[in-house]
Specification:
Helices cover 56% and strands 9% of the residues. With 214 residues, the protein is mainly alpha-helical.
């Protein structure tokens, strides 16, 4: 109970500097990554039919619905199964995720269109996990539910830098979100951003090393 009350006070102090960071980082990132986004969109269109950018319904801050945009990394027949979308099978399956899609997911470039969600204020660079909804929170108190929904979903969350990120286990994601709720601060967010860089490019470097030794 004390942690939840503390988190509400943190939320007020946390919101303004994080929003400034989100606006600056998303605007600069959109400008810097525009060529990459254009190349990714063209590569997707050339690789398989259908739209290059898709959207999924998400629950935002205070339960407000919005559409999150991302590059399509899967074939049409697998797009409706969101639970499959977040699994390791989706990353490794040649049938569901063509080469371009696997590369985008491995480098976390499939989330680049969500920068526009951050700029619009629907999301944050760092926040709670984005699959969270009321159905997943049935075992939690109303106070904890409301506290979690006072946070914006993030492009990056504690879940996305954890070993659970390719496992569709809502209970584990909620535990990561509660930890973030209790510990978040401006510096904590920066630490998560840095860890995401290490996780993404460290994994890529390891994969490349393993491939060269085979």
């Amino acid at each position: 109970m004390n942690n939840i009350s503390k988190s509400k006070r943190q939320n007020n102090r946390h919101a303004f500097p994080v929003r400034i960071m989100d606006i600056l980082f998303s605007f600069i990132s959109i400008l810097a990554m525009a060529p990459v986004m254009l190349i990714a969109a063209i590569a997707i269109k050339l690789s398989y039919p259908g739209p290059a950018i898709i959207s999924y319904n998400r629950m935002g801050r205070n339960g407000k619905p919005f559409k999150e945009y991302m590059f399509r990394t899967m074939r049409k027949e697998h797009m409706c199964d969101q639970s499959f979308f977040y699994t390791e099978d989706a990353l490794s399956s040649n049938q569901s995720t063509p080469g371009v899609g696997r590369l985008l997911k491995k480098l976390s470039l499939d989330k680049l269109p969500a920068l526009f969600n951050v700029l619009a204020g629907d999301m944050s660079f760092v926040g709670r996990s984005y699959i969270l909804d009321r159905h997943n929170l049935k075992g939690l108190s109303k106070e904890i539910q409301n506290a979690l929904f006072s946070l914006k979903p993030g492009i990056i969350s504690l879940w996305t830098i954890s070993g659970d990120r390719f496992k569709f286990i809502p209970e584990r994601q909620i535990l990561h979100d509660i930890r973030y709720l209790n510990e978040r601060s401006f510096m904590y967010d920066l630490g998560i951003l840095l860890r995401k860089v290490v996780v993404t490019f460290g994994k890529t470097a390891t994969d490349n090393t393993n491939s060269s030794t085979v």
